[in-house]
## 1
Amino acid sequence: MVNVYNIAQWMKANPDANVVIKGYADKDTGTAAYNLKLSERRAQNVYNVLTKEYGIPADRLSIKAEGSASQIYDTNNWNRIVIFSQD
């Protein structure tokens, strides 16, 4: 939640910036189809906090579900994450 708070503050300070919320899942848990939905739920939950709790306009955010097809980290369980990128 600290990182979600920090991105909300950054977005408030940078009103022209848009952010992509990318959800991931680890490859050793669940099927590819399940992990895709799981990563989508992760990203959606972060989106909900940013819009509902911090008042970030929805049109400044987009969601991308990466599932377990893309593994950012070599350590498997570290891939249970949401990453922000500037659009």
## 2
Amino acid sequence: MAKVKVHVFLKPGVLDVQGKAVEGALQGLGWPGVSNARVGKLIEFDLTGVEDPEAEAKKMCEQLLANTVIESYRIEAT
């Protein structure tokens, strides 16, 4: 069994509306030094019955977990 973590984030240059909202909120709460905030997602799951968990997770990202037109992803499998 493999523990898989997939980190999905917007590609550079893609407007991150959530990141801008977080940035503005943090600045409004007294952290004026916050800038360039980006929001992503983390997907964790257990994966069994495959020889190469990273390759399988890559297929999952390409088909479902990430919109590869505007998002990149990083896979950790242990």
## 3
Amino acid sequence: MQQAAIRINEEEFQPELLDEVPPRWNGPHVGRRLCDAMRTLAMLPMGGGGSAAWPAYCYEWDDLLAQQAQGELERTQALQNRIRLLPSSREVQRMEAAICWPAEYLAPLAHLLRAVNAVALAHSLDRDSGWIAAKRGGYADTWRERHDQGCDIIARGLRSCRVSVF
């Protein structure tokens, strides 16, 4: 068996870092950090009061046999065996800082505040501004423009407050 050698010049192959930190805050980087904050927030455990040490439901042998007959046993076992990945303390710290930016810097501009939060949430769910337009009305381009304007305003505010870039 013969293997082909692949040669790639350095000029042709320039891997881009997905999370390259710019030297100073800019609108796209603010949008990325807000999206990361929404993802981190979704990863946090949201308890409804006390913690449950027992499983949600105790299955008897007859229950397991009935589930196997219906083809539901594998799904039930998968739900019982799932693990939840928790965010690191650094991710939580960044989320706590970033989650307040829209309210802090866009309070008088409610239409931009809503757009920044909505588009950041959509991006954290791997959706686009068209998804927001379908849910809330309006046009996807308008939601995207307002999000970009709001992120630029937040970036200017972060630069003026000398917040370090992360």
